[in-house]
């Protein structure tokens, strides 16, 4: 049976929540934006940020800065703000060494998601990256998982796992695609119908490593 694992990015492999707040605060401070702009950004982009959000921002507050400049500033700042624990990075390396095929499967804009992956070094520790904006399919749609398998060059999803923090997008979406699932709960309880529940991505990796006898 093939060893196949898909990982969500935001708030699974990297801490987007804290990084997002720090990024927006710095972004507004550097550009001299008032508190109402910061509050608008925190609300509008809480779950996901796209270039079009900055078109709306410029319209809402009659800003003179070009959308491209605002988006690039935010994208660079967000990539710098997110972190991935060293234990997770080394765990991904262990999984690959043990014969697992790994892909990041994430919703979001391609440029910002890839900037996070490059900045943290995750992109050098997985075999493929599948970003919703780039493939035109979003989790929890089954198609994004099958597209990730195609990018990996593997034969279907049999024996695969989906690891993520979203009960709907990662767990329900993964289950619908025929994947087994690991919910990264962040300590939020056991109410999600996943095959396994863990507190963080490091625990998920340990679980997967244990499945093929790498760890006891």
Assembly state of the chains shown: single chain
Strand order of the largest sheet: 3-2-1-4-5-6
If you average the pLDDT, what whole number results? 94
Number of helices: 10
Distance between the termini: 20 Å
Based on CA atoms alone, the radius of gyration comes out at: 18 Å
Order of helices and strands: EHHHHHEHEHHEHEEH
Structural class: alpha/beta
Beta-strand segment tally: 6
Report the sheet-strand fraction.
5-15%
> How helical, in percent, are the residues?
40-55%
Return residue spans where pLDDT drops below 50 for at least 5 consecutive residues: none
Query: Which word captures the global form?
Result: elongated
- Characterize the main sheet: 6 strands, parallel
Report on the structure:
- This is Hydrolase of the HAD superfamily.
- It comes from Kitasatospora saccharophila.
- Keywords: Hydrolase, Magnesium.
- Its cofactor is Mg(2+).
- It is a single chain.
- This protein is an alpha/beta fold.
- It contains ten helices and six strands, in the order E-H-H-H-H-H-E-H-E-H-H-E-H-E-E-H.
- A six-stranded parallel β-sheet has the order 3-2-1-4-5-6, sandwiched between helices.
- Helix 1 (16-31) crosses helix 4 (67-81), helix 4 (67-81) runs parallel beside helix 6 and helix 5 (86-97) runs parallel beside helix 10 (201-211).
- The longest helix is centred in the N-terminal third of the chain and has 16 residues, at 16-31.
- The relative contact order is 0.16.
- The mean pLDDT is 94.
In short:
This protein has helices spanning 16-31, 35-44, 51-61, 67-81, 86-97, 110-120, 132-135, 142-152, 167-176, 201-211, and strands spanning 4-7, 101-106, 128-131, 160-164, 180-184, 196-198. By secondary structure, the chain is an alpha/beta fold.
